[in-house]
Structures are given as C-alpha cells and as structure tokens.
C-alpha cells in the first residue's frame, strides 16, 4: 500500500478554505464537514509524479494514518451524520454501522446527480432569455461593421477633382503590322501539309525505363522499443480527508536503429526510335510595322509599301491622347477615343475628376461636357 497524503476541504457555508482533511468541523462557522470535495494543496491529485518529483507532497505520519485510515467515511442512515471508517456506531445517534447504506462516495455521487438534474430542469424560457441577452452583443458588433462598411464605401466612391489644367499638346499614332512570307528549315516527328521534305532519319524519340534485374541492398530502419521502466505515482481520493499515493510502472521508450536487406528492382533506360522529318516550309510572320504619328488632328493611316512577298497583318492599332499642365507646371498625359479627342484643342482649360477607387477618370471642358479618359501607360 502507498503512503497517505493529507487532503483539504473548503467550507461551503462561510468560505473558509484549506481546512485539513482530518478536521470534522469548520473552524470558522462550525459546519460539519459533510459531502465536500477533497483536494491536495499542490493539486497533485490531478497529476502524475515521478520518483524525484514528490518533494512538496504533504505525507501523513504514522499517528495521523491510524487516525484517518484508508477507507471512506460512512453516513448514518438514521441521522445522516458522517462517521469515521473505524467507528462501529454513529457518533451522533448511536446507530450501528451495519445499518448504514452509503459512504462518502455514494453521498457525493447523489449530490452531483441532483445538481445535474436541477440544471437540466431549468425552464426553457430562462434559457431563451439568456440566448436573447447573449445575442445582443453580436448584433451590436454586426451593426457597427455594416456602418463602417457603408462609410468606407461612401469614402471610396467619393471624387477628387483637379482644376486649372491647360492642354499643351496633342498626339496620335497609328500602326499597321506587315507580314512576310518567309521560308524556314524545321524538323519534327510529323510532316506538315505544304512542307518540302529535305530528309528523314530514325532518331531517339524517348527513353523507356525497363526492369533489368533485382539486387539486394541494406537499408536502415528504426523502431520504438522499451528501454526501461520508471516508477510513477498518482493519488487516489480515499473519501475520508486523505489521499493514497499509488505507485505504478511506466515504460520509457527509445529509438532503435537496425539494418535490413531488401531486394530492389534496377531499371535501365531503353531508347525508343521514331522517324524524324526534316523539311522547308513557308510561313507568314510579322517582319515590321508601318507607323504614322503626329501632334495635330490630321490623323491618318501610314503607307505600308508592301513588297512582293509581304501582306498587311491583322490587328491595326491606334492611340489618341493629349498632355495637360497644371498651375505648378506639372504634366500628365491621357488617352481617349478618337471622336472625343477631335474635340480637344491645345490651349483648352480642363478639370479632371477621378474616384478614390481608381476607376477611370473623366475630364470636363469649358462647356461642362464630360469625357471618360484613361491614363496613358
């Protein structure tokens, strides 16, 4: 049997704490110990201690062990008084212990079951009130979040306007891609339509990994094995104001390494051949770009001056822009559609408005006309 450790209890009437387990009445209010919950001062009853981790355990001496004993106290079935394990008769009414029907643990279990039943029997209306009460805070937080989002939306959709701008320059550029019909020397695993074959030969297309043989190799393995056992202790509530220190053996593991011979496959690369074609083929490729530009409204497409083996490619491009200068001589350039650009002239006074969200800005001319623009890149 393990050594006995002193337990303590708290008075549920006056709140007096840390009363030794061998004291049957509260020293403050006189309340009988009854069905209290015992504990150890250092909380060791809820933990497991090693051999060298018990320096703060409060062990009982031999005289205290004899006084408290190892078995739970018993309750008198007639007057419900609590008595020591070694008492043959109730200290209050004298009834025989043989007529007793419950001990400390039985009484504690009944108390806990009654508390659970009372909790489960609480009216649902009280629970609903608690839910409504607890739900007010999330609703308030939600309302604040929505308000913050509305304010942020209004701010981001607000406008910033720059006034006092003068148009200092117009610019336009138009470009036409020009393609050339050019011959290329290529090779591939198939012969394209229209290609002129110049040769063919068998070449390596890819490698297959083919099993050649098996060979034995040694590999390192690991496993967890028991190295030794350590004595540990847990603390059992005796139900009489003391705890019993119960020893047990706990295995301590170590990692063990060993080698093992295994048979592993060995693969070799085997080349796979296919016919590769060599050929000449003509393709249309972009070779140059015809460009026209200017700083007036006379925009026109450039002359391509196509040669015999050239043609106009797809994807004509055109850009129309203007440059403005602010009152501090700062400059910025913008692009816009041709029909709007034709209405902008050097010397015009403009103001440019943009949203904080970064949406495309627009300018307003002297007649109040708004035109969407995109900053030049």
Judging from the principal axes of the Cα atoms, what is the shape? elongated
Radius of gyration: 48 Å
* Helical proportion, percent range: 10-25%
Structural class determined from secondary elements: alpha+beta
Total strand segments: 17
Question: Which series of helices and strands comes N to C?
Answer: EEEEHEEEHHEEEEEEHEEEE
Question: What's the pLDDT, averaged over the residues?
Answer: 87
Strand proportion: over 45%
Contiguous low-pLDDT stretches (5 residues minimum) are: none
The profile of the biggest β sheet is: 12 strands, antiparallel
- What's the number of helices? 4
The end-to-end span amounts to: 88 Å
Number of domains: 4
Provide keyphrases for this structure:
single chain, 377 residues, alpha+beta, 4 domains, twelve-stranded antiparallel β-sheet, three-stranded antiparallel β-sheet, 4 helices, 16% helix, 46% strand, elongated
């Amino acid at each position: 049997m393990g050594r006995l450790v002193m337990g303590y209890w708290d008075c549920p009437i006056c709140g007096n704490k840390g009363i030794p387990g061998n004291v049957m009445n509260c020293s403050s209010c006189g309340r009988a110990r009854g069905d209290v919950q015992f504990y150890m001062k250092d909380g060791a009853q809820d933990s497991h201690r090693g051999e060298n981790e018990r320096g703060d355990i409060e062990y009982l001496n031999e005289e205290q062990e004899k006084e408290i004993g190892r078995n739970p106290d018993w309750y008198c079935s007639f007057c419900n008084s609590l008595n020591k394990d070694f008492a043959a008769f109730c200290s209050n009414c004298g009834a025989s212990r043989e007529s007793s029907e419950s001990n400390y643990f039985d009484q504690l279990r009944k108390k806990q079951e009654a508390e659970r039943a009372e909790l489960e029997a609480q009216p649902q209306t009280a629970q609903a009130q608690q839910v409504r009460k607890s739900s007010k805070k999330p609703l308030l937080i939600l309302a604040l979040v929505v308000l913050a989002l509305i304010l942020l939306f209004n701010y981001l959709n607000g406008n910033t306007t720059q006034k006092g701008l003068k148009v200092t320059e117009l610019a336009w550029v138009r470009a036409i891609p020009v393609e050339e019909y050019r011959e290329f020397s290529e090779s591939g695993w198939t012969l394209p339509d229209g290609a002129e074959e110049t040769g063919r030969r068998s070449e390596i297309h890819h490698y297959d990994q083919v099993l050649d043989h098996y060979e034995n190799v040694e590999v390192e393995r690991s496993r967890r094995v028991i190295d030794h056992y350590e004595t540990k202790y847990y603390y059992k509530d005796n139900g009489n104001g003391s705890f019993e220190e119960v020893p047990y053996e706990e295995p301590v593991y170590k990692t063990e390494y060993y080698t093992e011979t295994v048979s592993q496959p060995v693969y070799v690369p085997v080349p796979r051949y296919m016919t590769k074609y060599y050929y000449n083929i003509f393709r249309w490729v972009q070779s140059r770009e015809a460009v026209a530009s200017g700083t007036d409204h006379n925009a026109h497409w450039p002359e391509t001056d196509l040669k015999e083996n050239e043609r106009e490619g797809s994807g004509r491009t055109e850009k129309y822009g203007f440059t403005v200068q602010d009152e501090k001589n700062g400059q910025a350039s913008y692009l816009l559609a041709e029909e709007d650009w034709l209405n902008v002239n050097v010397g015009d006074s403009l103001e440019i408005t943009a949203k904080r969200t970064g949406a495309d800005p627009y300018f307003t001319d002297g007649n109040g006309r708004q035109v969407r623009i995109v900053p030049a890149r």
